[in-house]
Amino acid sequence: MNTLIITRWDNAVCTALSDGQKIFQISFSPRQEKAALNNIYIGKVQNIRKNINSAFIDIGNGIIGYYSLTDNPLHLSAAGKVLKELRPGDEIIVQVAREAVKSKALVLTSRISFTGKLAVLTLGKNGIGFSGKISDQTWKTNLKTFLSDLDLTQFGLIIRTNAKDASFPEIREEVDELKARCLTVLNQAAYRKGLSLLYQAPASFLTGVRDVYTQDLEEIVTDDEELYQELQAYLKESQPEDLDKLRWYQDPLLPLKSLYRLNRAVEEATSPRVWLKSGGYLVIEPTEALVVIDVNTGKYAEKKTMSETILKINLEAAREIGRQLRLRNLSGIIIIDFIDMKEEEHRRQLLKELEEVVRRDPIKTTVVEITRLNLVELTRKKLHRPLYEQLAALKKPENLKES
Q1: What is the pLDDT of residues 70-81, one digit of tens each?
Q2: What is d(CA 322, CA 299) in angstroms, rounded to the nearest whole number?
Q3: CA distances (Å), origin 104, targets 100, 197, 376
Q4: pTM for the model
Q5: In this predicted structure, what is the pLDDT of residue 402?
Q6: HSE-up of 81 (CA within 13 Å, CB side)?
Q7: Any bridge partners for residue 4, and if so which?
Q8: If we measure between CA atoms, which residue out of 364, 349, 361 comes closest to residue 324?
Q9: Alpha helices in 128-193 (DSSP H)
Q10: What are residue 148's DSSP bridge partners?
Q11: Does residue 307 carry a pLDDT above 90?
Q12: CB-side exposure of 355: number of CA atoms within 13 Å?
C-alpha cells in the first residue's frame, strides 16, 4: 500500500509517493503557476509557420504556446464557430496540453478535455475508450451498454483505471459532471475577452491526489495546515470516498521531509549514477534529444556463470529503471544499454520483465524493441517537465519569493 506525501518545500509544494520502503514518484510545483497543465484560455494567433504546419498562440502574460495544425485540424473560436483555417489575429479556445520543456514552448491543443478520477472527457473526439490497465472485456461491454443513452456526439470518453473499482452509476455521474463543466466553459467564452483564462485547472498537488491509483493508496498525509485545508475541501467536493485517507501529520521535531527522507530521494533522483543491490549500477544521462541509460556490472561478486550474472543484473536494472523513470519523470525516447546477453531466452526474459515493470507506470510507457546494436528502446509520454527541470525552475528569481 502506498502513501501520498504532500508538504512545503521552500517556495513550492512537494508531492511524493512512497511504497513504505522507497520514494518512487516525486514532483515540485510553485504555489503560483503561470500556465498550469490543462488550463483553458482564449488565445490569440500570433503567427502561422506553414513550413512546419503550426501556429504560435499568445495566451496572455507574455506566454506563447506551440499549436500543431496537423494535430488540430479544426479550431473553436471564442464565439463558438468552428474554423477550418487560422489567420493571425484569430481568437480561439485552447488548452495547455504539455508544459514547457527546456527551450521548447508549452504545447496547446483545441481538443479541450476535462479529467476526473474515473474518466476523461474530450471535445472533438468520438467513442468510448479504456485505460490499457483495464483488461476485463465483459466489464467494458457492460459499461458501454450502461452508457449507451449518453449523448456523446461532440465528445470522446476515456475510462480511467480507477473506474474499475467504481459502480456504473458513479462513473455515469462523473461523466455528466465533466460534460456540464465543459459546456459551461464553452458558453462563458462568448462573453470573455481575448487572452482570458477560461478554466483554472486544480493545483498540481490536487491533481496528484486525483490521478493516483486509489486501490493501492492507504494514506494522504501533509504536515502543512493550509495544504491540509485545501486537500480536505477538494476531497469533500470531488473525492468524498477518499476523505478518510487524509491525515494531518503534526510533529514539529520530525517533519515529513525528514520522516520520509525526501532530501535523500531528491539527491538520488538528480545523481547520474544509481547503485543496485547486486553491486551493479546505472548511469542515467538526459540529453536534448533523448535519455540514455547505461547498465554496468560494477561491484557484483556472486559466484555464478557469466550468463547468469549478466541476466540477474539486467533484471534488477530493469526493475530499477522503471522506478527511476517515474522518480525523475523522464520521458520521450529512452535508450537503454543493458549488458549484452548472448542467449535469446535471456533476452526474451529481460524484455518481458521490462514490459511488466513499465505497465505499472500511470504515464503511458512503451517498450519498442531491441535494436541491431542490442540497445533497448522505450518511449514515455511527455506531460510534465522532468524533475531536474522542476528543481531548476524553483531557483528562478520569480519563484524565489514565498507566495
Answers
A1: 999 889 998 888
A2: 22
A3: 6, 22, 26
A4: 0.84
A5: 38
A6: 7
A7: 17, 220
A8: 361
A9: 137-146, 168-189
A10: none
A11: no
A12: 11
